[in-house]
Give the backbone structure.
Amino acid sequence: MSSYHLDHLQYLETEAMHIMREVAAEFERPAILFSGGKDSVCLLRLAEKAFRPSDIPMPLLNVDTGHHFPELNEFRDRRARELGVKLIVRRVEDAIAKGIAVPAPGEISRNRLQIPTLLAAVEEFHFDCLVGGARRDEEKARAKERFFSFRDSFGQWDPKNQRPEIWNLYNARVNPGEHMRAFPLSNWTEMDVWEYIRQERIEVPTIYFSHKRQCVRRNGQWLPATELLPPKPDEKVRELVVRVRTIGDVISTGLVESPADSVDDILAEIAAARVTERGSRADDKAGEAAMEDRKKAGYF
């Protein structure tokens, strides 16, 4: 009698597809959070495999800070067209103009302003579940999430009041005004994501691979020199061969010097890395408490 065993990636894929199908079955108006980053492109592939030949039964939602890398937005729009999936983009700039998001005096980063923009989109479209690509290995606050993470009527998350998830059974009930966040990639690691990208031959934005870019050294890391992040008088602009490990906006995304120009090169680099993936994100420098506070307020 023969038996069938799933390998590591097959198990993760099956688990994630199960979560995607649970979302489709349990919720009336779900959406997939799609930035164009490596985790969200894996979500799209999983959605394809979970629902094809039918259409993917939920739209894509993106919160555009106005500070995104142009390469990322181009990739986001093109992939949505190629898959024939509805893409909803809500811009922080518009939220500011409508008074939904209010910048603090002197605030340059729009990271915090994504929260009211996202929650306004949830209210506008009556979304009852948002599927995100967050993983527990990324950061300590994210490690506290369950597969199905409840948000109250204010869009807020209470890490001490989460529902038990036993034997792959999930309590997806929400009252009007409440919603759920679902994280199919919870048990994946950065290495798993790139191995899946290699296995499935998934296209990712070019900025994940080595390229030349104008950079400035600030707070112990290389940041892209742009109009949004101009060099200070005492900072020297250097052209370096760099890539990104995790993508935020132009202001917060740290660059790593790297010759990696293929997925195999990236996998070898990750295996040898001694800095965490989000160690290159300027918006995470404030530590676990800052991320947890943002998530409690409704962050992704």
Remarks:
- The chain has a mean pLDDT of 86.
- Residues 205-283 form one domain.
- DSSP finds eight helices and ten strands in the chain.
- The longest strand covers residues 211-218.
